[in-house]
Amino acid sequence: ESLDYEDKEEDLIPRPPVVTVMGHVDHGKTSTLDAIRNTRVTKSEAGGITQHIGASTININGQKVVFLDTPGHEAFTAMRARGANITDITVLVVAADDGIMPQTVEAINHSKNAGVEIIVAINKMDKEGANPDRIKQELTEYGLVPEDWGGDTITVPISAKKNEGIDELLEMILMVAEMQEYKANPNRKAVGTIIEAKLDKGKGPVATVLVQKGTLKFGDAVVSGCVSGKIRAMFDDKGKSVKKAKPSIPVQILGLSDVPESGDKIYVVDDEKIARNIAQKEQDKAKEEKVKKQEN
Ligand code: GDP
Question: Where do the Tr-type G domain residues begin and end (predicted)?
Fold first, then answer.
């Protein structure tokens, strides 16, 4: 896709890391994400209602980190099937009183295949049956050798419930981000990925976009799959109206003709007419494929 061209090295500048918390059901993904969010709520934000847009931006000592909401298992599989590769770092949550389970293995494989860094959070350390050494042993069987065992996999013992180890986990995320030097060019037409979309009764189609390249701006003409539009409102994860969003920043946008698909790319183009044309072509293509399938 020519709209998604590669940038020159000299045009790239640092961007915040994008993190997803993954792991087996009940190992504490939601609790970990909540603990992270709660430790980082500043006074000015406290009392404000965090908007559910599918992602949140957290400030750690002046540095931004973006957390994607842990998708439900099905949504996650669907995103992956579309090849959405939008995360930089996986926080792999493993319950210390349990062990590596099927969805843990799936998360490991997916992260490895996508070239995503893995930080292991050994959760539920407060529980009586917690056995971090057993978890570490199991990790080695999947090629993740803990640092304290001579490997290069970072493991952090935490208790999401008791809010312990969360600062250490955040420190490790920042350290990995610093080493990896995630970068993007903010000075170009934006390209992003739809991470959530729905039809709102009052507002019409609303979609959360994770900007990956360029700067997404109010008034931009956009196309995503068969859907086109012009951004007529944009909100950050605190529900605040914003005029632009740089790489790694999630924003909810209004102004699309229809509900786009999660996992699809979204591109800024010169004007609405071009956006409509591209969307129409995509629609025709989709119809043709449907007919072909029926013929076979
Ligand atoms: P998810 O399915 O991976 O999102 O897991 P949840 O965050 O919903 O947690 C599953 C259960 O484990 C809930 O009952 C949590 O209260 C509990 N839990 C999560 N973290 C901890 C922890 O650190 N210690 C203890 N004792 N329980 C926890």
Answer: 14-183
Residue closest by Cα to atom 24 of ligand 1: 124
**pLDDT tens-digit map of 135-170:** 999 999 999 999 999 999 999 999 999 999 999 999
Ligand 1 site, residue 26, Cβ cutoff 6 A: yes
CA proximity to 133, closest of 148, 143, 118, 119: 148
Could you give the CA distance from residue 248 to residue 18 in angstroms, rounded to a whole number? Answer: 6
137 C-beta closer than 6 A to ligand 1: no
Ligand 1, pocket-test mutation among 161, 166, 169, most atoms within 8 A of CB = 161
pLDDT over 80 (residue 75): no
ipTM of the complex: 0.99
Beta-carbon contacts of 90 under 8 Å, excluding residues fewer than 6 positions away, are: 19, 20, 21, 22, 107, 111, 116, 117, 118, 119
* Predicted TM-score of the model (pTM): 0.92
pLDDT in tens, 88-111: 999 999 999 999 999 999 999 989
Q: Which of 200, 185, 178 is nearest to 246 (CA)?
A: 185
